[in-house]
Task: structure prediction
Amino acid sequence: MIRRCTEEDIPQVAEIENLSFSRPYPAFVFKKYLRARFLVHEEEGKITGYIIGVKMGSKGIIISLAVHPEYRGKGHGKKLIEELVRIMDAGIIELQVRRSNTEALKFYQSVGFERKGILPAYYGDGEDAVVMFMKKG
Ligand SMILES: CC(C)(COP(=O)(O)OP(=O)(O)OC[C@H]1O[C@@H](n2cnc3c(N)ncnc32)[C@H](O)[C@@H]1OP(=O)(O)O)[C@@H](O)C(=O)NCCC(=O)NCCS
Result:
């Protein structure tokens, strides 16, 4: 089931974040996004993944997406991104992903995103970002 994230979900979201990224967002950052488009995937009472999107002007931006390592490859990421795209009132959705994150690059391509370009040394550790976009509708 996909539903909006609530404050009670944040410890599980932060755990997924810690298991998924070498430089995870701290829990307080998630609290700030509770009023954004912040969705979780829940299975048998457990949060298995989350996605955060915001509107910036006429664009939708995906801030973060992660699925718990034990639940990957089961379509939860795809369901989360499809629902976010559905509820995002924007013609174009964009995101940035680390150039070395080949799994995420393949995932985003498989759900319909295209490569737009590179932001050199975008991340704090100097890694490039790949910018990807999707036209809605
Ligand atoms: C990227 C991520 C969110 C994908 O979530 P997921 O639930 O495992 O993905 P899904 O099962 O919905 O996969 C949908 C499609 O994406 C592609 N895909 C997903 N994981 C893939 C991988 N590791 N390698 C290649 N293709 C992959 C497949 O085409 C898949 O379709 P299929 O199952 O029919 O083969 C997940 O791997 C993750 O949390 N990674 C760590 C965090 C991260 O990198 N987030 C993105 C950067 S912001």
